[in-house]
Design goal:
By secondary structure, this protein is of the alpha+beta class. About 40% of the residues lie in helices and about 25% in strands. The N terminus and C terminus are likely disordered.
């Protein structure tokens, strides 16, 4: 995913609007935890250009490893829905987003290779959409247990609400989380509320998975989940869906380490996945042999 395009365009064209938005609090306690703020870049590409785009994105990722770039990103490739790439870019605050945007401008001006790759990738883009979303700590299920470095697949649920129905969504997902907890279902998820880039109010639910087969566990325990909610709870959930949800869409994405750019700390969560063929630093260090990642962002 070409996060650089979306990030630079968004920040260089809208700096005042970003500064007017409320600021996030302290940084996440773990580098692999769901971030406080997400910058998401959806991109679709010209037909027949998937291979060319992949090569350019890998080249961009490698080029960024040699630079002190200001942020990291996880590249997701669609499994369901429309063919697209989704860049999942973690930040701690709007201030950090703004600083990253300014720094990318300097990088493009100074490093011709990166600027060239950027332009070649951009030439293949058919459609692009950039979204900013804030984590909602008051709703979710075992979100603090999520380790993004272990994720291989991501389910993304998009819920667009009718105006004034935010509390109905929160009620529904708190009820769902309580039912998950009641049957001790090991399927954590984290919720974000869209701040910019989509019609408000919109919520995004991210379910990281280590493999697609985790969906089998959810299907197998569907009856247990309904029983845990109770008849009244199920009826209330259905009522909220009818009256409050303007639209919902759920899609699956596969995580692509080759076109992602993560920090050394993040990659250490599973170096064989994030950097299996990379050799950096001390040749006598087994950690380096298995893929020392890059400069810290």
């Amino acid at each position: 995913m070409n996060v650089r395009t979306g990030l630079a365009l968004l920040l260089l064209s809208l700096p005042t609007a970003l500064m007017a938005l409320p600021q996030s609090g302290e940084s996440s306690p773990r580098i692999t935890a769901p971030p406080k703020l997400l910058l998401l870049v959806h991109q679709s590409f010209q037909p027949g250009k998937a291979s060319a785009r992949q090569k350019l994105e890998v080249a961009m990722s490698r080029a960024c490893e040699r630079l002190a770039v200001p942020n990291s990103w996880i590249d997701l490739e669609s499994i369901t829905g429309q063919p697209e790439a989704l860049s999942f870019d973690p930040f701690d605050s709007f201030e950090q987003v703004e600083k990253a945007g300014a720094e990318w401008g300097r990088i493009f001006n100074k490093h011709t290779e990166v600027a060239r790759l950027q332009e070649e990738i951009r030439a293949l883009v058919l459609n692009e959409r950039t979204v900013i979303a804030l984590r909602r700590d008051d709703v979710g299920y075992r979100a603090s247990s999520i380790d993004l470095s272990k994720a291989r697949v991501m389910r993304v649920l998009e819920v667009r609400l009718y105006p004034g129905h935010e509390n109905d969504f929160i009620e529904a997902f708190k009820t769902l989380a309580a039912a998950y907890e009641k049957i001790n279902l090991d399927a954590p998820w984290v919720v974000y509320q869209v701040n910019a880039g989509m019609p408000a109010p919109t919520f995004l639910v991210f379910v990281p998975m280590s493999a697609l087969r985790q969906n089998d566990d959810l299907l197998a325990r569907r009856k247990d989940l309904l029983d845990a909610q109770g008849e009244a709870g199920v009826e209330r959930m259905q009522q909220i869906a009818r009256e409050s949800y303007a639209s919902t869409e759920s899609n699956l994405y596969a995580i692509s380490p080759e076109t992602s750019h993560v920090t050394n700390e993040f990659a250490a969560g599973d170096p064989e996945f994030w950097s299996p063929k990379r050799v950096a630093g001390n040749a006598n260090s087994s950690a380096d042999k298995r893929g020392g990642r890059k400069k810290q962002n």
